[in-house]
Amino acid sequence: MEGTTKIKDLTPSSRRVNVLAKVVSVGEPKSIQTRFGEEKSVTEVIIADETGKIILSLWGDQAAQATDGATLYIDNGYVSLVRGHMRLNVGKYGTLSEGTEEVPSTNEELDMSEKEYENQYRSGSGGGFRGGSSGGSGSYRRYGGGSGGGNRSYGGRGRRDSDNNED
């Protein structure tokens, strides 16, 4: 298929990717609570192409499409980090369908979900939501610098040197 991304070429920042892969194994559905307090079902599916394999997270009814040996086409997928490991996701703007082409062979040696990455909430360092110093355990400062440094263009109502200059 034209415009498909090979699994070995996926990175933690991959967005809007199209992947054609074969289902290697389907895990048991797990019930998790979202950050909004909703109960959702997620199934981890290992998919592979000729370049490598990765875990595909399927939510709710999407998992019914994944059976061992099936070929799947993920259109407009994205990669996220779960506990520092890459997961391919379909998301609400993507689609999951049966692949119209066969995957000739699979490489299960290169596991793209195996490597651990440092979770990155946003580029840059410190400051802002979930970055830098939060000012205490369990609390997050939504905007502004604090002692964490980083991008201070978000608020930070402290005095500036120019505010103290009187003409």
Q: Could you tell me the strand content as a percent range?
A: 25-35%
| Count of discrete alpha- or pi-helical segments spanning 4 or more residues | 1
Q: What level of helicity do the residues show?
A: under 10%
Q: Total strand count, please?
A: 7
Between the first and last Cα atoms, what is the distance in angstroms?
68 Å
CATH class of the largest domain: Mainly Beta
Question: What is the CATH third-level topology name of the largest domain?
Answer: OB fold (Dihydrolipoamide Acetyltransferase, E2P)
Succession of helices and strands: EEEEEEEH
| Overall mean confidence score, pLDDT | 81
Poorly predicted tracts of residues: 122-154
What does the radius of gyration come to? 21 Å
At the fourth level of CATH, the homologous superfamily of the largest domain is: Nucleic acid-binding proteins
Global shape: globular
Strand order of the largest sheet: 1-3-4-6-5
Overall number of domains:
2
